[in-house]
Write a structure and sequence with these properties.
Helix content: 25-40%
Distance between the termini: 39 Å
Largest sheet: 6 strands, mixed
Bound molecules: D-malate
Strand content: 15-25%
Order of helices and strands: EEHEHEEHEHEHEHEHHHHEE
Strand order of the largest sheet: 5-4-6-3-11-10
Radius of gyration: 17 Å
Length: about 250
């Protein structure tokens, strides 16, 4: 008689790229709620052909210059501000259909693209914000993989409240919606789950309470960005890495 082995999903969370041990990865999910992975999700939802991510600005410019100016855009920020000479900053509100449709976006941000680069060796790499949390969770469930690493982006190596909130939201959805046993491997994720249970009905205020939220508020009026980044499960797009550093809608 064949014994059915119940699949277990081992979920691990790391706050920032530097915390990730040097291991092979099945599934990696990168989160940068404010704002990189939210912007990536909306850009692909709005028809961008692909997003190529860079931690290094010179490498980005060298690659972008090889693309026809009408088929490319350079977007990104440093310190929350648009990078000089770039087409766009890092606001999810600016990657509209009219602006990004059919184009490749060359992207570099302070933290989010660093985290994406850190785990680009994963077999499956997805970018997640709160708008596409359910879509990414359902993709994970469909893959039936045993090991899922969730990676936040933080701020210049320090912890971020909003990324942990989203990691908790992902773990909570998987616990509630998949037939497999979900094993919370580390305390970082236990804490993130607790955080989600405290703030899940007040996401907008959690983002504004976070240090990066305060940093953005000190730079200008980002109310609409906060609204967009705090929307939950409104997008079905799953940004997936198709080749090292290149992300497309899957
Ligand atoms: C980052 O990558 O650090 C963030 O996305 C920065 C931002 O957009 O404010």
């Amino acid at each position: 008689m064949k014994i059915e082995r119940k699949l277990i999903i081992n979920l691990t969370y790391y706050h920032v790229a530097n915390d990730v041990p040097d291991i092979s990865l099945d599934i990696a999910v990168v989160i940068d709620v404010l704002r990189a992975t939210t912007t990536i999700s909306w850009a692909l939802e709005n028809g961008a052909d692909s997003i190529q991510v860079f931690a290094d600005l010179d490498l980005l410019k060298e690659s972008a210059i090889k693309w026809h100016p009408q088929k490319r855009l350079m977007l990104g920020e440093r310190g929350g501000k648009k990078i000089k000479g770039f087409d766009l900053g890092n606001s999810p509100l600016k990657v509209t259909k009219k602006v990004v449709n059919g184009k490749r976006l060359f992207m570099s941000t302070t933290n989010g693209t660093k985290s994406l680069q850190k785990v680009q060796h994963a077999k499956h790499l997805f970018a997640m914000g709160l708008p596409n949390r359910r879509a990414v969770a359902e993709k994970i469930i469909s893959l039936k993989s045993e090991n899922v690493l969730i990676l936040g982006s933080g701020w210049e190596g320090s912890y971020s409240l909003e990324d942990s909130l989203a990691a908790g939201a992902l773990a909570s959805y998987l616990e509630a919606n998949c037939d497999f046993k979900v094993n919370i491997v580390n305390d970082e994720l236990q804490a993130a789950l607790a955080l989600w249970n405290i703030w899940k009905h007040n996401i907008f205020n959690c983002l504004k309470t976070a240090t990066h939220g305060k940093r953005l508020t000190s730079l200008g009026d980002y109310e609409e960005d906060f609204k967009c980044c705090s929307e939950l499960d409104c997008l079905d797009v799953v940004p997936a890495q198709v080749e090292r550093g290149v992300i497309r809608a899957s």
